[in-house]
Amino acid sequence: MIPQPSTRPKLRAKTPQPPRWKKRLVLIVFVTINLFLVGAIIGLFALSPASFADRRPAVIAALFSPTPSDTPTVTQTDTQEPSSTPIETETNTPTEDGSEKPPPDTPTNSPTPTTLPDYLITSLPTPDTVERKLHVPILMYHYISVPPADADIYRKDLSIAPETFEEQMEWLDDNDYEPVTLYDLMIALNTGRKHLPDKPIVLTFDDGYVDNYENAFPILQEHDFVGTFFILTDVTDRSDPGYMTWEMLTEMSRAGMDIEVHGREHFDMANRDYDWLLFHLLGPAQTIEANLGYQPRFLAYPSGSYDEAVIAVAREVGYWGALTTYHGAQQDKASPFELQRIRIPGDWSIATFASIVTDT
Predict the structure, then answer these.
(1) β-strand partners of 74
(2) Of 57, 147, 171, 272, which has the highest C-beta tally within 10 A?
(3) Of the candidates 241, 233, 226, which has an alpha carbon nearest to the alpha carbon of residue 196?
(4) pTM metric for this prediction
C-alpha cells in the first residue's frame, strides 16, 4: 500500500519580530533626520548671495528683466522749463469763530520728530496723506573760483568768482533768505512737522572741487549758512588734484556742512543695469558713512542724467530723494527723486541773480 501524503500543514519557523516600540523609535529618528536635512538645504539657499536677485521687490526685478523695456530715459538740460503746477495743496480748516486752524498733521509749534541732527535720522519719517508742494529754491553751484585763461566754455560757464559768490550770499542774507538742508525740506514735504523759515533756500555744490573748501566754505561760515556738497567718492579716495580731500570734508561736516552723493565718478547713470547701479549708488553712500560717520540720503544725478531704474535702485538702497537739473523751485512731495534746481552761471550780475531767485 502506497503511503498517502500527509494533509497536516508543515510547521515553519517564525522570524523574530522587534518589539513595537522599537519600530516607532526608528520611524521618529528617520523623520527627524529628513526634516533637519530639508531645513538645512532651505537655509543655505536663503543665505546664498545668488538668491538676492530673486528676493528683490517685484518692481525692481521687472526693471531689470531680460525683456526689452520701453521705460523712457530722462536726459535733462538746463533750459527745460518746469511744468505748471499749483504751489501748495494744503488747505486750512475754518473754525467756528471764522479763524483758520492748521491741518491736524501740522500743529503750529510741532517739534522735530527726533532730537538727533536731521542727517543722523536712520529712516524717513512716515509720510502723511497730505498732497504737498513747497516753494524752495535750490541753487546749483560748481566751481567757486576764477577759471584759468585757457579754460574751455564749460569750465567758464560753471565758474563763479569768489567775490561774485560773496556778493550773492550777502544779497541772500540781506533779503532774509535762510539756507536749510535737504533733510529739512524732505521732512517738511512728507510730514509738515518741520517748519521751514519764511524764505527758505538750499545751497548745493556739485563735483567736490577743492575751491569749494578754499572759497565757498569760509564765506558760508561768515554768513552762518549751511551748504550741501555732492562729491565723487572714488575721486576723493584717490586724492585727485583739484578736488577736496577727506580731511577737508571732515572739517566741513563737523562745521555743519552737509556732504552727499554725486557718484563714484562723474558717469551718466541712465541706461545702466541693476548691478552697475547698485555699485555706483550703494558704494558711495557706504564710503561717506565710513569716513564721516553717517549715511547720506541724497543724490545729485551726474550731468542730470537718470531714468526710472536709477530712481528704483536709489530708493531701494536708502536714498530719500535726488536732485535734477530741471529749472524750477517748486518741490513736490510726490516726486522726491526729481527735485528742481536753479543753476547759477558765472556771468550773472547781482541784479539778474536777484530776479531769478525771486521770480522762479
Answers:
(1) 306
(2) 272
(3) 226
(4) 0.71
